[in-house]
Specification:
CATH class: Alpha Beta
Largest sheet: 8 strands, parallel, barrel
CATH superfamily: Aldolase class I
Number of domains: 1
CATH architecture: Alpha-Beta Barrel
Oligomer: single chain
Number of helices: 10
Helix content: 25-40%
CATH topology: TIM Barrel
Number of strands: 13
Bound molecules: flavin mononucleotide
């Protein structure tokens, strides 16, 4: 058997990735009316030219209320669907797969642009009333508890956005269920204080995510992989905090409902203790999920060098390395890694003289 390395292909349903390097979703706060534009084409396009196997777009709202700021991307109307098409096409022309990260920010919505301080934006200044699993204060704002009918509407928004993702030509969909956003606001008891079928027990708290996954799976092609990003832990020491054991259980349930791949991230309600942040600090989450379930697993968090990334893949600790900030510094991470590790990869013909 050939040993695995960073440039071994990976197959997710009918989608073949040329290597094990993914560009992690990164909000750019550069969209207009939810539409991606030239910035997104060049930003995502450069990383495709740079040889990643998979590009996951920034979190893309399924409805206007799902945004963080008014400059986030969206996929709730036809204009946005059209605006994604040339970006998807360019990335795919480079032999790179592209997934859209679908998302609802819930109680963390209605903020000003980061260049204006990323502060809660009140309704009288163009913001909106944020809603969540419960009226638990987060980021200084107390959201309104969602009714069962509103939960149903949001599930439907994910379904409609998934259909638009297929229409726009995306190879895959990642549902963002981490980082303190709406799905996480349901499965973590830190925020979820409901007394109905969506709160209380583990089964009730994960219900909103599992039902949405089931509905989305029904409207996307059988061959299209469905990915989910979770926060494997809350990075909180309280009794309500979400645990890694619960993440392992959730991951298996998601896999049983048609999810092909989990990225194990962390946090979202509290800042991570800086002393705990070191290269690969979230890798133990991916290892636990990979070892205890049959779902393919990605790791994210301070993966910055080729040897480290190759070690993660070749020792089977994770199936994919998902890299964010290093890709901001170095869009050509994958091409440089192939050179450093002395493993062949295809160089775009236009760039051959540089590598
Ligand atoms: C500018 C920026 C924007 C981000 N936006 C998103 C996002 O849209 N969705 C998401 O799941 N994570 C987002 N993240 C988190 C990253 O995907 C990643 O999980 C985190 O930065 C840790 O990985 P790294 O150490 O490789 O940067 C963002 C991170 C950065 C730096």
């Amino acid at each position: 058997m050939k040993t695995l390395n960073l440039f071994s292909p990976l197959t997710l349903r009918n989608l073949a990735l040329k290597n094990r390097i993914a560009v992690s979703p990164m909000q750019m706060y550069s969209a207009t009316d939810g539409k991606p534009g030239n910035w997104h084409l060049v930003h995502l396009g450069s990383r495709a030219v740079g040889g990643a196997g998979l590009i996951i777009t920034e979190c893309t709202a399924v409805s206007p209320e799902g945004m963080n700021t008014l400059s986030d991307t969206g996929l709730w109307n036809a204009e946005q669907t059209e605006a994604w098409k040339p970006i998807v096409k360019f990335v795919q022309e480079q032999g790179v797969a592209i997934a859209v990260q679908l998302w609802h920010s819930g109680g963390k919505g209605s903020h000003t642009h980061p260049n204006e301080g990323f502060k809660p934006m009140p309704v009288e200044h163009g913001g909106w009333v944020t809603k969540s699993s419960s009226a638990t204060t987060m980021s200084g704002v107390t959201p309104v508890e969602l009714t069962i009918a509103e939960i149903q509407t949001i599930k439907n928004d994910f379904v409609e956005a998934a259909k638009r993702a297929v229409e726009a030509g995306f190879d895959s969909i990642e549902m963002h269920a981490g980082h303190g956003y709406l799905f996480h606001q349901f499965y973590s008891a830190v925020i979820n204080k409901r007394n109905d079928i969506y709160g209380g027990s583990f089964e009730n708290r994960i219900r909103f995510l599992v039902e949405t996954v089931q509905e989305v799976r029904k409207v996307i092609p059988d061959g299209m992989p469905l990915l989910v990003r979770i926060s494997a832990v809350d990075y909180l020491e309280t009794e309500e905090a979400w645990t890694l054991d619960e993440s392992v259980r959730l991951s298996q349930i998601l896999a049983d409902n048609g999810v092909d791949f989990i990225t194990a991230s962390g946090g979202g309600f509290a800042f991570v203790d800086k002393s705990k942040v070191h290269p690969g600090y979230q890798l133990p989450f991916a290892i636990a999920i990979k070892q205890q379930t049959n779902v393919l697993t990605g790791t994210v968090g301070m993966i910055t060098d080729a040897a480290q990334a190759n070690q993660i893949i070749s020792t089977g600790q994770a199936d994919l390395v998902v890299i964010a900030r290093e890709f901001l510094r170095n869009p050509y991470f994958a091409l440089n890694a192939s050179k450093e590790l002395n493993i062949e990869t295809e160089i775009p013909w236009q760039y051959k003289r540089g590598f």
